Amino acid sequence: ARRRLSKLHGQSTRSGKTQSRNIPCVLYLLRESISGTPKMSRHQNGEEYRNPTEVKKSQIVMPCHANHRQELSVGELLKWMDSTACLSAERHAGCPCVTVSVDDIHFEHTIGVGQVVNIKAKVNRAFNTSMEVGIVVSCEDLFSDTHWSVCRAVATFVSQRTTGGKVQLRPLVPCTQAEQVEHSLAAERRRMRLVHADIMKDLLANRVQEAEKAVPAERTRVESVELVLPTHANHQVNTFGGQIMAWMENVATIAASRLCNAHPTLQSIDMFHFRGPSHVGDRLVLKAIVNNAFKNSMEVGVCAEAYQGEEPLRHINSAFMTFEIRDQEGKPCTLPRIRPEPLEGMRRYQEAIARNKIRLDRKYIISCKQTEVPLSVPWDLSNQVYLSYNNVSALKMLAARNNWLLNSEKNKVSLYTLEQKQVLSFKVETEVDIPAERAFMLLSDLSKRVEWDPNYERCELILRVNDDDFLYRVVTPSISQDGVQDFILLASRRPPCDSGDPYVIALRSVTLPTHPPTEGYNRGEVLCAGFSILEISYFNQASPEVLPYISTDIAGLSSSFYGIFCTCNTFLQENRVDHTSTPQSQPPSSTLKRTQL
């Protein structure tokens, strides 16, 4: 098979022709692709392509920007990030924009005095009235000519007319492979933001009692008042969002210092969410307190409220910041436990435990590179959302690759291959005469796959998590001496977010305590699998357990893939009409007469 691939690769290189096609649809993957940094696209005239919404900012860190350790203050960095992202959002909207929220930020490195901060922001996707802006922060040392990453962030902005009211945004058309991936993943990140509150409710059901010997939380309480001056306002005469975030970081740092009587290091920030505007003349009341302390980190809750004259306080923003105390060698110190205040203090204490669990899930499942994530991750309700996100995003990233090589073709059923970093992937492409939405409904029910796929011997539904996520146990027939295999799969399906998006059905392996490996079955692993349907293509990044099912096709010794897809086509045609429910209205993209598989 590898000799066959090498031969095909050489033929493609010599001919100078690209064998891949721009396929927007059904994908099937059996391990997540490894996403690297795409090369800059170029126009036909040879000039480098640049996103029209991209804004860059470079700033030398001066002593006035630094803290007591001669490192750039995080509050100052937040102001620079927010202003750069705002300019990017306004480039796309064509009118003033305001910050709605900033997703979690994890700071990888610090920045010293004399070093240069480089910030790049660009709009990833525009929805109806809001847009997601991606922010990348890096640092460079001018003397050693070294560069390193500092952090990444995602902010949400809305545009507003001067007369009030939100502006309907025009769609953003991605042009490069990297832009297509971010554009697609923006919808999944938006989905995670919307379900964050539900995750908190589920985790708060499991309460943990506080330690008896602990530092009183009241000792860490900080309150500070700032008068909003014209210098603190943006061009819309509202208090600059970055300035509010900087003030919040300041009081949070003081609260963290009071727990251990030492200088803390800010590690990460949970989502900033602006609940209302602040104006010049406001008195901004900033409050911070340590909600909980874990072994090597503590969570500080901070909120900002505003008032003028005798009016009641208005809630402006809330955030949760994670700090560490480091010794002289830079290693995290063990922290004392915190004793919460009664009532509200206990609520904050319990919620901090839940948020810490969420942070670990996000860092472990979402933030890691795909090669750093084990194949099967333990599944539970608390990390379900992040596993589902990882599942769908892995599928979309493999679909966005544009260097597939045509291996063979038979009666308009094409087999493509892709080999990167010693990982073999394949893609099968064909067309069926059925609306995309109906194909989505049929293919998302894995229990029906045994009717057309000979590689599915049995499929058992273990749990219906919600309308979009399901857990299955799949048994595949034996084709080697290893015997019968089974898989525990998380199936995540997504309808289109916009009219131009595909339908997505993603699969990946998980582990369940209720379904351990059983005698007589070899437990197989699937990092990511699924379908993406607008037109339909079939992808598979083959794991060792999957490669035997396709190796003869890749080597040109068989065309079993053609027979499977013919059977799939027959299955879809026989079930193209749903006789069990009333037809619903469909978006234009899902009513195509022919759907490419």
Automatic annotation (TrEMBL):
Residues 51-163, 218-329 form the HotDog ACOT-type domain. Coiled coil: none annotated. One of its GO terms (biological process) is acyl-CoA metabolic process. It catalyses: butanoyl-CoA + H2O = butanoate + CoA + H(+). Its main location: cytoplasm. Keywords: Cytoplasm, Fatty acid metabolism, Hydrolase, Lipid metabolism, Repeat, Serine esterase. It comes from the Eukaryota. It is found in: Cytoplasm. One of its GO terms (molecular function) is carboxylic ester hydrolase activity. Residues 404-533 form the START domain. GO terms for cellular component: cytosol. Residues 580-591 have a biased composition (Low complexity). Pathway: Lipid metabolism; fatty acid metabolism. Residues 578-597 are annotated as: Disordered. This is Acyl-CoA thioesterase 11. It comes from Oncorhynchus kisutch (Coho salmon). The gene is ACOT11.
